[in-house]
Design goal:
By secondary structure, the chain is an alpha/beta fold. The chain is built from eleven helices and seven strands.
Length: 294
């Protein structure tokens, strides 16, 4: 069965699996980083399977009604991975995919970090780390007060778990028995300038979330079907919020970027972008997309 994929000039056939979707999101992220000259590509690639699972399998939403009160919420708290979110929203049908070509243009709303209301489907302004989970809790509490049963998901980076506001929210959610909240930690083991577990003692990360009162699980962050199964099991019947520690690889999918933290800030040259799309099996996307930053 084909999955929905809204496109423009690419004329690619619809993807058939979540892994196919993730590969296309990665290819789109590479092209956007190259053409716009923006960094954080390694972080964009590590979370592609999580975003694919969310938008193509789990979230209860209607792209034609992006502000429907009953919709599930997804907050990209690691806002520096915005190109992955923008690509997902465009190809899921929230706005025309042709708009991705304006990313990071002078005065355009699709900025390097998501702004408030910058595009249909973007739930929150993020980029300053540590705020996505507190906002998710607020959305969940508001839903309870309003008698709604929507679910709220927040995708955090592992480096973001350095922030004290994350752990304040981690204590509040179980106290309020917010069983409709799920946090996914993109645990790629890197942050801007070093290994995450060498900067602060994050490990054992699952045990830390569990000790704070969450239903905590470890999962292969590059198995979108396993991710979707866990994400969709919300509420899980325990009355507790759910934490998924998704083990990932920074730069996943492109051999010369994988686990190389230089790609936190490096921007791919034209030949590197072309090589990346070839590895991802997305040469057709390359052929249809102008390489304006050669």
């Amino acid at each position: 069965m084909s999955l929905p994929w809204h496109d423009h000039a690419d004329a690619l056939p619809p993807p058939r699996t979540l892994a196919d979707v993730a590969a296309r999101l990665r290819a789109r992220a590479v092209l956007m980083s190259h053409t716009a000259g923006t960094p954080h590509l390694g972080s964009c690639l590590s979370c592609a399977d999580i975003v694919a699972a969310a938008y193509w399998r789990v979230l209860r939403l209607d792209p034609q009604r992006p502000e429907a009160p009953e919709r599930d919420r997804f907050i990209l708290s690691k806002g520096h991975a915005a190109v992955t979110l923008y690509a997902a929203l465009a190809h899921r049908g929230f706005f025309p995919a042709s708009r991705l070509a304006t990313y990071n243009g002078n005065g355009d709303a699709l900025a390097e970090h998501p702004g408030p209301g910058c595009a249909p489907g973007v739930e929150a302004a993020t980029g300053s780390l540590g705020h996505g989970l507190p906002m998710a809790l607020g959305m969940a509490l508001a839903g309870r007060i309003q008698g709604r049963n929507h679910r709220v998901y927040a995708l955090l980076s592992d480096g973001e778990c350095n922030e004290g506001s994350v752990w304040e929210a981690a204590m509040l959610a179980p106290a309020q028995r917010l069983g409709n909240v799920c946090v996914i930690v993109d645990y790629n083991k890197w942050q801007a300038t070093g290994r995450s577990d060498e900067t602060l003692a994050l490990a054992p990360l699952r045990d830390k979330w569990a000790s704070f009162g969450w239903s905590a699980h470890e999962v292969d962050g590059h198995d979108p079907d396993a991710l979707a199964a866990l994400m969709d099991r919300l509420p899980d019947g325990s009355g507790r919020p759910v934490a998924l520690i998704a083990h990932t690889v920074k730069g996943k999918g492109v051999s010369f970027m994988e686990d190389d933290n230089n790609w936190h800030y490096r921007i791919p040259k034209a030949e590197e972008a072309a090589a990346a799309l070839k590895e991802l099996g997305q040469e057709a996307m390359l052929a249809a997309t102008p390489m304006v930053r050669a």
